[in-house]
Amino acid sequence: MKVRKFKESTVDKAPTILVLGYFDGIHRGHQALFEKARDLADTKNATISVLTFPENPSIVFSKFNENLLKHLTSDKKRLQLFEKNGVDFLYLTDFTSHFAKLTSHDFIENYLKKLNIAAVIVGFDYKFGSDNGTVKALSDYDIYQIPQISDSNEKISSTRIRKAVLSGDVELANQLLGYHYELSGLVVHGEARGRTIGYPTANVESKDYQYMPATGVYVVDIEVAGKCYRGMASIGYNDTFGGQTKTLEVNIFEFHDEIYGETATVYFLKLIRGMVKFDGVEALITQMKNDEKIAREFV
Ligand SMILES: Cc1cc2nc3c(=O)[nH]c(=O)nc-3n(C[C@H](O)[C@H](O)[C@H](O)COP(=O)(O)O)c2cc1C
Ligand SMILES: Nc1ncnc2c1ncn2[C@@H]1O[C@H](COP(=O)(O)OP(=O)(O)OP(=O)(O)O)[C@@H](O)[C@H]1O
């Protein structure tokens, strides 16, 4: 897959199936668009292109809060997912105040007409341009509109998945994504207390702007140094010890190596429970034994 800033000079001239949207998470709803794109690319002997934005368009419209910078995936994973879904050319353009002022007609003139479009694919609720243009505005093209993909009678959407992650319902998030929600980060030093209670933990510090699941204890898989292990993770402030900073820590099963400075990827499988401020270490250890049993038995 080639990744390019959208400019007339960088655009590939081969016939292409253009898929339009923002695509945070590239969930099962989005994947349906790419499935159709692959079918059409085969029959029309065309490539597949996506024209999208690196950041959330809401940045231009809403009062700032830190969540606006966050995504359901890291940038690296986003590229991997586009590639896995068959995209040949990923064209990125910044969603700015100026861009937001373009009408659907301007967008077609300034962007779509620069490409050699064999077909356009959008979802059932796709709207574009400052005039909220519908697919009607695209009627000069061979246009395919994908019907709503739902789960439990509700639209699969990035917004719904964001809410699931933030509430700790990673099982729902995973079901809607079609893959496991993940966070990657460097393994850094914590308080070195974990080993003294029989549960050493890898403290994972992410540099990506991603949504952190709700504070709590989770069944996870963790990939480190090319191998995947089962583990149990805690997201929280280590309330029992009066901690002040929020950490993501993983007790990795059957693992006894030193891994500071390695990059680890944590796959969230299931929320076990919320964080508890215990009266003493013994109560925490008893609870963690129970967490371990649940995490080991989870399939
Ligand atoms: C599976 C798991 C469950 C945990 N549950 C709690 C909890 O309920 N309350 C709490 O205060 N800390 C909890 N912790 C965090 C521990 O307090 C923390 O791992 C320990 O203090 C070690 O910290 P350190 O990595 O900074 O040395 C949990 C940690 C793990 C791995
Ligand atoms: N569940 C779905 N079924 C069919 N098409 C979808 C679905 N979700 C999104 N699409 C389509 O995918 C493209 C990208 O959509 P968009 O990035 O707005 O995703 P979204 O999940 O709807 O996001 P948000 O929750 O932020 O509204 C659009 O063309 C949209 O219509």
TrEMBL record:
Q: In which pathway does it act?
A: Cofactor biosynthesis; FAD biosynthesis; FAD from FMN: step 1/1; Cofactor biosynthesis; FMN biosynthesis; FMN from riboflavin (ATP route): step 1/1
Matching SMART domains? Flavokinase
- UniProt family annotation: Belongs to the ribF family.
Signal sequence: where?
none
Question: What the protein does?
Answer: Catalyzes the phosphorylation of riboflavin to FMN followed by the adenylation of FMN to FAD.
Its gene name is: ribC
Q: Catalyzes what?
A: riboflavin + ATP = FMN + ADP + H(+); FMN + ATP + H(+) = FAD + diphosphate
Presence of keyword Transferase? yes
Q: What is its EC number?
A: 2.7.1.26, 2.7.7.2
Instruction: Tell me where in this chain the Riboflavin kinase domain is found.
Output: 176-299
* Main EC class the enzyme belongs to: transferase
Record keywords: ATP-binding, FAD, Flavoprotein, FMN, Kinase, Multifunctional enzyme, Nucleotide-binding, Nucleotidyltransferase, Transferase
One of the entry's Gene Ontology molecular-function terms is: ATP binding
Which species does the entry assign this protein to? Pseudolactococcus hodotermopsidis
Cite the Pfam families for this sequence: FAD_syn, Flavokinase
What is the recorded name of this protein?
Answer: Riboflavin biosynthesis protein
Specify whether Kinase is a keyword of the entry: yes
| GO process terms (BP) | FAD biosynthetic process; FMN biosynthetic process; riboflavin biosynthetic process
Reading the lineage from the top rank, the first entry is Bacteria
